[in-house]
Amino acid sequence: MAMRMLVNCSGCRTPLQLPTGPKKIRCSVCEQITRIAEHGPQQYSPAPPPSHGRKRAVICGISYKNTRRELNGSLNDVNCIKYMLMYTFKFPEESILTLTEEQRDPLRIPTKHNMRMALFWLVQGCQPGDSLVFHYSGHGSQQRNLSGDEVDGYDETILPLDFETQGMIVDDEINATIVRPLPRGVRLHAIIDACHSGTVLDLPFLCRLNRSGQYVWEDHRPRSGTWKGTNGGEAISFSGCDDNQTSADTSALSRITSTGAMTYCFIQAIEKGAGTTYGSLLNSMRNTIRETGAGTGGGPVTSLITMLLTGGSYSGGLTQEPQLTSTEPFEIHSKPFYL
């Protein structure tokens, strides 16, 4: 099995693919220049499995077991998404890389290092016509942005299993790893079920959709001029909530078992046939959230459901609204959705 040659950035420690020939490499995340002769490449083996066919996915669910941050629905999210990818969208099982705490292979545990390697694998060698999917169910957070490339002044982050010792994965790194390298003809869809996840891929445009179906694309391109788009490909992200909202982990939606609210609504929309266009898919997801939050009768169960879906407040809390972001604006009510 071939070894992957990487060198850690001397600034932010992001693994960088080692180029052939040059003695230094510039990090696309922090712009630091790393001299390869000084640090030397690192070998990571075994690598994730080779891709099969023209569809590839990384699905990651983190429960944070036996901690105060434990989530009940993340493993269910992964199982449901994997089933949908395989049987609805015909992704070969061997082209789906799954990271959960239950994996026996230590390279499939969702540590920061393994998640980074999985994201590198997702886009490595992609060709025109390829369809890529990244699904994440776990905790999300924010940290103050110091580079001036965030409209709200904060970077969005996702939290690996070992984030308390290894740190979070920041949206700048996710963008540099799986968005910017995409060549023309390659499509990436991200499904992010986490708090503060609205712009976690740092895509340049955010779709604001109201209940009547009217929408506008907000321009989130950094004032600094930093490029957040692709190399000609297309990246679209569905996320569980806006950057300033929290995302529920609840059994209120399925009535059977705990799931992330975003993941459940996404799959439910597909199963109901609402996934014909991006607009109909997003509308269906939001309607499921609203209907569950509204309930039918106002009893104690309904009150609990509403609290879960409004970030803990029954009256006037922040309502979870799934978001759509993209590298380019498009007509959401006519563009067909497919993976």
Mean pLDDT, rounded to whole units?
78
Low-pLDDT ranges: 38-53, 242-259, 295-318
SSE order in H/E notation? EEEEHEEHEHEEEHEHEEEEEEHHHE
Strand content: 15-25%
Q: Report helical residue fraction.
A: 10-25%
Give the strand order, joined by hyphens, for the main sheet: 7-6-8-12-15-18-13-14
Span between termini: 29 Å
Report the radius of gyration as a whole number of Å: 20 Å
Largest beta sheet, briefly?
8 strands, mixed
Short summary:
This protein is of the alpha+beta class and 339 residues long. The chain has helices spanning 36-39, 74-87, 112-123, 163-166, 171-179, 261-271, 278-294, 300-309; strands at residues 4-8, 15-17, 24-26, 33-35, 42-44, 55-61, 96-99, 131-137, 140-144, 154-158, 169-170, 187-193, 205-209, 215-219, 234-239, 249-250, 259-260, 323-326.
Characterization of this structure:
- The longest helix is centred in the last third of the chain and has 17 residues, at 278-294.
- The chain has helices spanning 36-39, 74-87, 112-123, 163-166, 171-179, 261-271, 278-294, 300-309; strands at residues 4-8, 15-17, 24-26, 33-35, 42-44, 55-61, 96-99, 131-137, 140-144, 154-158, 169-170, 187-193, 205-209, 215-219, 234-239, 249-250, 259-260, 323-326.
- α6 crosses α7 and α7 crosses α8 (300-309).
- β16 (249-250) and β17 form a beta hairpin.
- The strands form 5 sheets. The protein has an 8-stranded mixed beta sheet, sandwiched between helices. Strands 2-1-5 form a 3-stranded antiparallel beta sheet, with no helix packed on it.
- The chain is α+β, with helices and mostly antiparallel strands and 339 residues long.
- It contains 8 helices and 18 strands.
- The radius of gyration is 20 Å and the shape is globular.
